[in-house]
Design a protein that fits this description.
By secondary structure, the protein is of the alpha+beta class.
């Protein structure tokens, strides 16, 4: 097989790295083309190291399953330019990582660090929080009802409800939640002109703007010191006082742990929640179906996660020379896992471009798979289930009241504005 056979054509390759394509929907056209014509091709783009692109559900699943063959830690697990990679390595003493979260780890470290907080996110522990989460959800629905029948669902409900839940679990004071939200949007939305830090002049500059991470570090350093001095029954205390093999975790690892929980812990849930409400606003039949049968709410939750797939891509690195899915990869080769493509794979999902609240089975990949399966998946699904249980019985009508918009980002994206008109009891 020649290089020409495996190379992804320039227009499709460029779309994969263009933040705007993830906002305007063109990425799904590229994914469909790749699944049909070159499901494990190689993208060669000026200024970025070449990388393989996995777009089929079965390939993404298998790569995710083989954690010792396809690594997270050897290179950046998120797409970066050659310039960004060089600057990060220069700042971090040769490491390709600005942070050292679970996302940047492989075994043997990954399972040890995951175990530090895993119990907090298991269904048995979360059950203790269900009554409190329901109270927060009810307050969010009341706030929505008080808008008088028109609001931006993202800004009024979807952003704040999961943020409040995860910050309570962490132990972050409610007064600091707006700061956490702003920092999260600046981190994940760096390439978006409306979400990135205004002081930065361009999307490329914003990618190098360390001030967002510096601000996170300053906040969580103070919180960590407080919890070491006076531990509480919260996740911040667990992280602050954690040890691995009898030694305290490093400052970088502690700060990284705080940041991943404080950002991914609510942002992806916000996006899936808003994605579902957007879909329901455009599909009265699906809204009527789930309102008539509340037993479909868990199905609505899974379909909203599949439909939105907030984490669009992660990168992996081949640990050795390997032939995979008919392609010969070399040690050190970079791979992009396109979860949103896997979740629209015609070979796995019937009518994948339709939003169906009763879709079953729904073997979506939005939480990843294998050792890196999302730590907070049970919390995310519980939050969404409870919100719909509180909101849908009161919702009499729903429609769009303007043009919704998605954020511009190649890594994590979702709805950033969703104007709706509604009637509620």
């Amino acid at each position: 097989m020649t290089i020409a056979d495996i190379r992804i054509p320039a227009p499709q390759a460029q779309t994969l790295v263009e933040p705007l394509a993830y906002a305007d929907g063109r990425i799904f056209e590229t994914y469909a083309w790749l699944r049909a014509n070159n499901p494990l091709g190689r993208a060669e783009i000026e200024g970025i190291d070449p990388f393989w692109v996995a777009t089929r559900h079965e390939d993404i699943l298998e790569i995710s399953r083989q954690n010792s063959l396809f690594l997270n830690g050897d290179r950046s697990p998120t797409l970066v330019s050659q310039e960004a990679d060089a600057r990060i390595r220069d700042m971090m003493g040769g490491s390709p990582h600005l942070l050292r979260t679970l996302v940047q780890m492989d075994a043997p470290d990954h399972p040890k660090y995951r175990a530090l907080t895993q119990a907090w996110f298991m269904p048995t522990n979360l059950k203790v929080h269900e009554a409190r989460i329901r109270k927060i959800a009810r307050a969010a629905v009341d706030k929505m009802a008080a808008t008088g029948g028109r609001c931006d669902f993202v800004k009024e409900v979807a952003l704040h409800y999961p943020l409040h839940v995860v910050m309570e679990i962490m132990g972050v004071p409610e007064a600091d939640e707006p700061r956490m939200l702003t920092l999260t949007q600046e981190l994940f939305g760096a390439a978006d002109p409306e979400l990135g830090r205004p002081a930065s002049e361009s999307p490329e500059d914003r990618k190098f703007d360390m001030s967002v991470i510096t601000d996170f570090f300053a906040y969580f350093s103070a919180l960590s010191a407080s919890r070491r001095a006076n531990p509480r029954d919260d996740l911040a205390s667990v992280i602050a006082n954690s040890t691995i093999d009898g030694n305290p975790i490093s400052e970088l690892e502690a700060m990284s742990y705080y940041i991943i929980v404080a950002t991914a812990g609510h942002d992806t849930t916000s996006s899936s929640t808003a994605g579902a409400f957007w879909a329901l606003a455009e599909r009265p039949d699906q809204l009527a179906k789930v309102k008539a049968n509340p037993a479909l709410i868990p199905g609505l939750v899974d379909e909203s996660i599949r439909w939105t797939t907030p984490v669009k891509t992660f990168m992996r690195t081949a640990a050795e020379d390997v032939e995979f899915a008919g392609r010969k990869m070399c040690k050190g080769d970079w791979l992009m896992l396109c979860y949103a493509s896997g979740n629209r794979d015609e070979a796995v999902f019937e009518a994948p471009n339709e939003f169906r609240v009763d879709r079953s089975p729904n073997k979506h990949l939005a939480f990843g798979y294998g050792a890196h399966l999302c730590l907070g998946q049970h919390l995310a699904k519980m939050e969404m289930r409870i919100l719909w249980e509180e909101l849908l019985p009161r919702l009499k009508s729903l429609e769009l009241a303007g043009v919704p918009a998605m954020s511009q980002a190649t890594f994590v994206n979702g709805p950033k504005t969703l104007p709706v008109r509604f009637e509620m009891d």
